[in-house]
Each structure stands twice: as C-alpha cells, then as structure tokens.
Write a structure and sequence with these properties.
heterodimer, A: about 210 residues, alpha/beta, Rossmann fold, Arc Repressor Mutant, subunit A, 6-stranded parallel β-sheet, 10 helices, B: about 650 residues, alpha+beta, 7 domains, 19 helices, 8 strands
C-alpha cells in the first residue's frame, strides 16, 4: 500500500511513517501542511492519504477541508483523517464518502488494528472511530423511542464503524449467522432499509443516528 | 472692560465732592448735631460714587450722570452751609450768599430727581409725551428757586433769620408756591411714569424697576413712619437720615448688580417684617392699654403682659402673613417654591421618582430647556439625570450645585426669564435633597454597570482561558504522548523476535499506559471545555445527556448563540444534571433550550426529591453567579417531593 502522510508535528509524522513502513507499506510522501498535497497525490498516486485535522496556517480544520477536497476529486482514493478529539459533525459529513475513515489520533498506538483499518479504507471501506459511534448512540439513548438490546447496540456500533458481518462476528466472538440476526433486528428497529452494500448500510445507520 | 475705566470727568466729580464735604465737615463741626454733619457728608460722596460707577459701566446712559450731578449739588450745598455756619461764628464775608446757596439747591435737586425717575433705567423716556413732565419739573424748579430767593417769608430758614435778598411786595411768594406745586406735580407724575414703565417691562428691566421702586418707597416711607418717635427717641433721627441712602443704593444695585439678590424676596420680606412689626407693636400697645385699665398704667404686670402678647404673637403672625405677602408681591417665587414643595411631598409619598426633580425644576422655572447634570468621580464627563452623557453647556448659563463643599453638578439654563432666574436659589434650596438622591442613583447605577461589565469581562476571559487550555492539552501534551507511543511501538517492532523478549512486553505495557494517559487527558480537556461546544449547544447537550446514568431528554434546536452564552448554558445544564444525580436521586430529567426574544432560556427539570436550596458552596450558587455574570436571571423551583426545575435566562448580547 502506498501511503502519503500530512502531519505538522515532526515527531508524529516520523512516527507515523515508521509505523506504516514497519507494517510493510510504502510511504511515498510526507508533508507538514496541506499546501501542495494535491500535487503530491497526483505525482505519487498513493492508495491512502493520512491527514491530521489541525494543520497550518490556522490550526483549525485545514485537514478536514483538504480531505473533503480530495474525496470530491478522487472518490476512489482512500482518505484517513486523524483528530485530537471527537468532532461528530465533521466525522459524519465526511463518512458519506466511500473509502473514508475518521479516527482519534491515539488509535495509532494499537498498531495492528490501526493498520487493519487503514487497509480497509484504502480498499474502499469505511472507518468511523468507535468513540464517535458511542457518542451518537449515547445521544440516541437519550430518546426512549428505541429499545435495542445491549448486544444489538454492540452490533450497531461495529456496523457503523464499517465492519462487515464477518468482521463483527470475529470481534464479538459469535457466529456470523448470529450477527446476521442481530443486524436484521437492528435495521428493522431503526427503520433502515436492508441493503447488501456495505458502505450504504453504514450511511443509513449513521443518517438515522444523526437524526436522533 | 473698556467701558468701566475711570476718566478725567469721573475723577473731577469725585474730587469736587470730596473737597466740598471735607470742608463742610471741618467748617460745620460742633455747630450742628454730629450725626447731621457726618451722615450728610457721607451721603453726597456715596451718591457720586454710585453715579460714577453706573456712568463707567453705562457711559451712554444719563442715569449715572444724573445721580452724580445730584450728589455734587448736595456736596456744594453742604459746603455752602458749612461756610455760612462757620462764617456766622467767625465773621467771615459772604455768609448770607453762602446760606442762600445752601438753602436753594434742594429745588434744583428736585428737577434732577424728576429727570432720573423719568428715564430710569434705560436712559430714555417711556414715550415722547412724558417730555412735558420733565419740562414741568424744570420750570417748577426754576420758578420755585427764583420765588424762594426773593420771598421774605423764606427768611426763617436762614441763619440770620432773615432773607437778605427779599424783595418786599413782589409776587415772589406766589411764584414760589406755583413753582413748588409744579415740581411736586412733576415728581408725582415721574413716579407714575415708573409704574407705567413697570407694567409693560419684562426681564432685566422689570427687576431693575422693582429695585428702584423699592428704594423710592423706603426713602419715602421711613421718615413718616419714624415721625411718631422723632421727639421721644432721638436715635431715630440718624436712622431716618440713613433712609436717604436707600434710593441711590437701590438704583446702583438695579443698574449694576440686579442679579445678585432676589428683589422679589427682599421686597416681600421687607413688607412682611414691616407688617409684622407694626402689628406686634399695635398688639403691645392695645394689650398695655387694656391691662392698664385693670392693673394700673406703668405696672410691671402690664408691661410683662404686653411683652408676652407681643412675643407670643410674633411667630404665628409671621407664618400667617408670609404666604399671603408672597402671593401678592412675589407670585412667581411663591409658585416656583410651591411647585418644588409639592414635588418633594410626592417624592416622600412615593408618587414621584427622584429623577422627576428635573421636570419639577422645568415646571418651576417655566422652561422645558432646563437641565440637570451631575459630576461623578467615575466619569470624566458630566452625566444627565438618567446617567447618560449630559448635553453640552453651549448657549446655556451654568449654575453650579454644591452640598457640603462638594460640587454635585450644575443646572443648565437656556434662556430663563429674569424673574424666574431670580428664584433659582430658593427653588434649589427646596430641591437639593432630591437632586442629591438622583445623583446618588446615577452614581450607583454607573458603578453597578461597571461592576457588571467587569464581571462579564472576567467570565469571558475565563471562558477564553478554558478554550486555550483545552487546545493546549490536545495539541501539546496529547500529541506528544502519541509520538512517544509511536516511538515505543517502533522500538517494540525492532526488538521483535530478537534477543530480549522480556523488553518487548515491557514496552507493550508502557504503550498501554501511554494510551490510558491520552484517554485521561482527553477527558480532562473535555471537562475543562467540551470541544463539541464548537459545533453547537444542541450537540453538546445531547452528548452530555448521553453520559448520564438516567434517561435525559434534550429539547434543543440547532440555533446558534454567542459562544460564551452557549458555554454558560452548557455548564449550567451540567450543574443542574449533576445536582439531579448527586442530591435529588432523580430517575429522569429534561433539558430544554429555547429562544425568547434576544434571550436564551435554558431549563433543567428532574423528578427527584426536590427541596434544593442555593447554599454557599453549592452548585446552584455557582449557576446563579454564572447567569448573573451574563446579565441574566435565574429561577429555582424545588418543593420537597415535587422535583426540581431551574430556569436560566441569558441575554444574547455579543
């Protein structure tokens, strides 16, 4: 996997690069800002761009803006945004794209999981930080309309994260068939139309959670 | 000012007068009563000085010159009389001529008086038709003088008891009487002229005429009033002579200092005390007569009883008469003072606010342009009665108001009529307490505004500081920990399958610690100021609700408010929900956010045990303070067993 990293803090940038290299990937470009990111992507043709949210010059949302721009022009390019803290609004807006991920920065310390997620995003999948999901669910819980069981909530969270039924089964250490049952219940209870497409299923769940 | 400088004419007049009077005093000394010598010697220079002062200030107005001329004539007369008295003793020549001069000048002075009355204070006649009065006066004075000089009957006024110039059998006697009658008629008509002038006079001229008439009445009324005592009480004689000064002095005040004193007040007080004195004296006499019948005249009891009646009747008499006299003689003043008294009574009865004092002053002075302004230590510029910057004093007279030596403020007068202007001190004396209260209220509200502003600034600064700390934690410490974690992961990777398998697991544990530290740091930053507040109050409240141990319903739209207002509302909701958990044992709560006009209304309702009270150190006091700092209001409803509902309203002024 060819990776481009945009991160303004030198140590972190180096650490991220080494992380991907240690995982057997090729880091084809690193940047401290988003200024000529577009050109770099054009030249290096990466599979994945990893971006920090806050970058020069204003240190507010340069990363998310650049990510949005990249996704608009290159729908197939994998984009993974790393944030210091949770901003559900940005996260959800961007997750409407396929091949997009939004993670808290410290997820990188769980190397195996992180690389796994990065590869999934590069391959066109979705990744939403579990923290975002749990906040959305927490909001949802504030309205008593739904009556999902604990297990169903777990499954819902993993669905929203972008995992396949197989992935969910592996995580929860249950059979894929059981997962399918839970997923069907969740979708029925949330009134989300059943759909085979993995990404659209994520979107539907998110859209529903957001409306709550 | 150029018009007020002495020139040669003034100096000459003064020098002549002083020389004449100095001679008169030396010559007449011990030949007539001393008070007679001294008072007349003082009178002429006083009149000339007043005349010269008026002439220097109003050089084109003949009034000053007429007065001065009258003074000089009197001085000549005094000097001539001195020559005659001393000459008679010492056998000087020309005694008869000097005596004649001394005794005939008063007729010429009469013509001057007529002229002065006719032109006072403007220097012009009321109308051309009054010129014949002047002619009558001059004619009468001339005819009278000639008749006087030639009449044998005028002899008794001369030192020798005989008029040396008398022409026996001439019609001099008749001429004297005709001339004197004409002069008297002219004098009477000139007084009529002043009354006519007063009726149509306004403003300054009216005040001047009042002064002048006051002096004229004093001069005319004191001698007859003193007549009954003339022989029994010798001391009244010099007092009566002093009455001569009244007219020139009041004329001087009228021309030069009419604004210095309130003439209406002086007239009405003079009349009042004259009346009171007369009535008390009458009471004394009547009581003494009545008691004398029973107790015998000259009895100590009679005197004591009469004195008692006089003493006891003084105060009630004065009070009874005062308002009556004021109504007759100083109606403007009376009305203005009563306006203020009524206002003060209304103020005490809570029917008026202290700020109404400005309107009351406007009514009293009959001018809606009258303004009050206050000087306040906190404000470099004067403030009006409502605490706003006061209008400039341009085009207005500024009258300072002080109390105990402290300058409180000013009254600004646009163009108040002279009569009204004169009552200002009396009106302010009535109003001073209200003025002081109004000023203190302005002072207080000014200070309160400053405290509110500074409290708001402090809260905003604290909010900004929270935001800065939150960012610093995220961008600084947290990022650094991630870098350390990544470095450790790399080391772990390098060591994998190597010579020190123990080290790899130690590093793994270290990374776990780092991960925990990052999570704790994020919680800490979130507690200081949730980052999600940047995305709006609604989201932040939903998230807050989601963390609660019991269901919390949030009803909030996506409306955005100023950041510090959103933060305040968020923390109030936090405090309210924390209370619900910790103290109220609630099982359900609701958080509602609404917009009411330009205010954010936040309510937190729970179904707990109620009975919450804002005590020191409790979170509710914190909420109350926070709301107050934003200039909002906070209400708490928490009856035992009925749950708790707190409502905070925060104005959205950014």
């Amino acid at each position: 996997m060819r990776v481009v990293i945009a991160e303004d803090q030198v140590l972190l940038r180096a650490g991220l690069a080494r992380l991907f290299q240690d995982g057997g990937h090729e880091v084809v470009g690193v940047r401290g800002d988003v200024e000529d990111l577009e050109q770099l992507v054009e030249e290096t043709k990466p599979d994945l761009v990893v971006l920090d949210v806050r970058m020069p010059p204003t240190f507010t949302d340069e990363g998310t803006n650049a990510a949005q721009h990249l996704k608009e022009t290159r729908p197939d390019l994998g984009v993974l945004v790393l944030s210091q803290h949770i901003e559900t609004k940005h996260a959800i807006e961007l997750t409407t794209y396929a091949a997009f991920g939004y993670l808290l920065k410290d997820r990188v310390l769980d190397v195996e999981e992180f690389l796994h997620t990065a590869e999934r995003v590069a391959a066109g999948g979705s990744a939403l930080d579990p923290e975002v999901i749990s906040r959305l669910l927490a909001r949802r819980r504030a309205s008593p309309a739904d009556s999902l069981t604990e297990r169903e909530l777990d499954v819902l969270a993993l669905m929203a994260e972008g995992l396949t039924n197989a992935g969910i089964a592996e995580k929860l250490v249950i059979t894929e068939r059981t997962v399918e049952t839970h997923v069907r219940h969740v979708l029925t209870k949330l009134d989300v139309p059943e759909d085979s497409h993995r990404h659209r299923r994520v979107l539907a769940v998110l859209a529903h959670l957001r409306s709550g | 000012m150029a018009g007020s400088r002495l020139d040669a004419r003034h100096v000459l007049l003064l020098a002549m007068t002083l020389t004449c009077e100095a001679f008169a005093v030396i010559a007449s000394w011990s030949l007539e009563p001393y008070w007679d010598t001294l008072i007349y010697a003082a009178f002429s220079p006083a009149v000339v000085v007043i005349g010269v002062l008026i002439a220097t200030h109003h050089p084109r107005n003949p009034v000053g010159w007429l007065l001065a001329a009258g003074g000089v004539l009197t001085a000549f007369s005094d000097a001539a009389q001195g020559w005659a008295l001393r000459g008679h003793e010492e056998g000087w020549p020309g005694v008869a001529a000097a005596d004649l001069l001394a005794n005939s000048i008063w007729l010429a002075s009469g013509a001057l008086t007529v002229a002065t009355f006719l032109i006072f204070p403007s220097g012009h006649l009321v109308s051309r038709s009054w010129a014949w009065v002047l002619a009558l006066g001059v004619l009468g004075s001339s005819l009278g003088t000639v008749g006087w000089l030639l009449s044998p009957d005028s002899g008794e006024a001369f030192i020798g008891g005989e008029n040396p110039y008398a022409v026996e059998g001439s019609p001099a006697e008749a001429a004297y009487f005709v001339g004197l009658s004409a002069l008297a008629a002219a004098l009477l008509l000139s007084v009529v002229s002043i009354v006519v002038r007063l009726r149509s006079a306004e403003g300054v001229e009216r005040q001047q005429l009042k002064w002048f008439l006051f002096g004229a009445v004093l001069s005319a009324a004191i001698p007859p009033a003193m007549a009954p005592l003339w022989f029994s009480v010798p001391a009244v004689r010099p007092v009566t002579a002093l009455a001569l000064f009244a007219l020139p002095v009041t004329a001087g005040i009228a021309m030069l200092r009419y604004r210095l004193y309130d003439v209406d007040l002086i007239i009405s007080r003079t009349v009042l005390y004259s009346l009171v004195t007369a009535l008390v004296a009458a009471g004394y006499v009547v009581t003494a007569l009545v008691l004398g019948v029973f107790l015998g005249h000259g009895s100590a009891w009679t005197t004591a009883g009469a004195t008692l009646v006089a003493a006891l009747s003084f105060r009630p008499l004065r009070q009874r008469l005062q308002s009556q006299v004021d109504r007759w003689l100083a109606p403007t003043r009376q009305q203005a003072v009563l306006t203020l008294r009524k206002f003060m009574a209304d103020l005490r009865a809570d029917r008026e606010e202290p700020e109404g004092v400005e309107a009351a002053l406007q009514r009293a002075l009959a001018d809606p342009g009258v303004r009050l302004r206050f000087h306040i230590p906190e404000s470099s510029e004067p403030l009006d009665i409502h605490g706003a910057p006061a209008p400039t004093s341009a085009g207005r007279e500024v009258v300072p108001i002080s109390r105990s030596g402290v300058l409180l403020g000013d009254v600004l007068l646009p163009a108040v009529a002279e009569e009204r202007r004169a009552v200002l001190p009396a009106v302010l004396a009535e109003a001073d307490l209200a003025v002081e209260i109004a000023r203190l209220r302005v002072l207080l509200s000014r200070r309160l505004d400053e405290v509110k502003d500074s409290r708001r600034r402090i809260v905003t600064a604290a909010e900004n500081e929270r935001r800065r700390i939150e960012r610093d934690l995220h961008d600084g410490a947290q990022q650094r920990l991630v870098s350390i974690g990544l470095a450790l992961r790399h080391a772990q990777h390098e060591l994998r399958g190597g010579v020190a398998p123990g080290a790899e697991s130690v590093i793994g544990a270290a990374v776990d610690e780092v991960t925990l530290a990052i999570a704790e740091l994020r919680e800490l930053a979130h507690g200081i100021r949730p980052g999600c507040l940047d995305e709006g109050l609604s989201g932040a409240l939903h998230e807050l609700a989601g963390k609660m141990v019991f269901p919390v319903r949030v009803d909030a739209s996506d409306t955005r408010y100023p950041p510090e207002v959103e933060a305040a509302a968020y923390f109030i909701a936090c405090e309210g929900l924390t209370n619900a958990v910790k103290h109220a044992r609630a099982t359900h709560a609701e958080v509602e956010v609404d917009t009411l006009g330009d205010r954010l209304v936040l309510s937190v309702t729970d179904d707990g045990v109620g009975g919450a009270e804002p005590r020191a150190g409790s979170g509710l006091i914190g909420i109350s303070d926070r709301v107050a700092a934003h200039g909002g209001t906070f209400a708490l409803e928490s009856r035992p067993g009925r749950g708790t509902r707190l409502v905070a309203e925060i104005p959205c002024v950014s």
